[in-house]
Amino acid sequence: MGALLSLGQERRWRDFMVSRIDAPADARILDVASGTGLVARELVARTGARIVALDQSSEMLAAGAWRNEELGISDRIEQVIGRAEDLPFEDASFDALTFTYLLRYVEDPAAVLRELARVVRPGGPIASLEFCVPRDPLLRAGWRMFTRVGLPLLGATASPAWRDTGRFLGPNIEWFNHDYPLRRQAELWHRAGIRGLGGRVFTGGAGVVTWGTKA
Q1: Are residues 79 and 146 in the same domain?
Q2: 3-class DSSP assignment, residue 153
Q3: Which domain holds residue 159?
Q4: Which distant-in-sequence residues (6+ apart) come within 8 Å of 45 by Cβ?
Q5: Could you tell me if residue 49 is inside a domain?
Q6: Same domain for 144 and 63
Q7: Which residues pair with 94 in a beta bridge?
Q8: Pair 130, 208: CB distance under 8 Å
Q9: Is 115 inside a domain boundary?
Q10: Disulfide check for 121: which of 73, 92, 113, 179 has CB 3.0–4.6 Å away?
Q11: 96-100 and 28-32: which strand pairing?
Q12: pLDDT tens track of the chain, all 215 residues?
């Protein structure tokens, strides 16, 4: 669904987010909302570091475990069931952290960002990938038509569950970006103790990568 919503551009977005993580091979990196491990595997490929892939869904983690095994990198990726709101790790446990499509799904994004920053050592990089809404009126109109009509129809070709996911995503993304525009999101990162913020929008504003450094 992420590939559909990004019109096939999601891989490029992920590659850029991972490129924001400058970490040596002996680093320990936490990937939050890891899902099936797409980002975790790219982090291994780019850095050679040890990755802790955390997600609240055991089914999602299991779906990625076979791929890790197939690639021979299971020893580089430790899977942990957990929630971003209450990470089961001590302060400054990780050298870097990534998270993808997370803040739209939590009740208190500010608190979650503080919790994410808590487990990163001072000076460690943090980066995220999230969907966004195009600012240009014409692009935004096309994006809204696609998310309200096209995405549910495409999802329905797979299953009723994917159809419902398609119906949910557009309004959810638009709601989040209305209540938490990029400027406000940057303020939350800063208040969480993350400095040197950078951001880049992709595909006409449909996706955004944000990054910074733990103070």
Answers
A1: no
A2: helix
A3: 137-170
A4: none
A5: yes
A6: no
A7: 120
A8: yes
A9: yes
A10: 92
A11: parallel
A12: 677 666 778 889 999 999 999 999 999 999 999 999 999 999 999 999 999 999 999 999 999 999 999 999 999 999 999 999 999 999 999 999 999 999 999 999 999 999 999 999 999 999 999 999 999 999 999 999 988 998 888 888 888 887 898 899 999 999 999 999 999 999 999 999 999 999 999 999 999 999 999 99
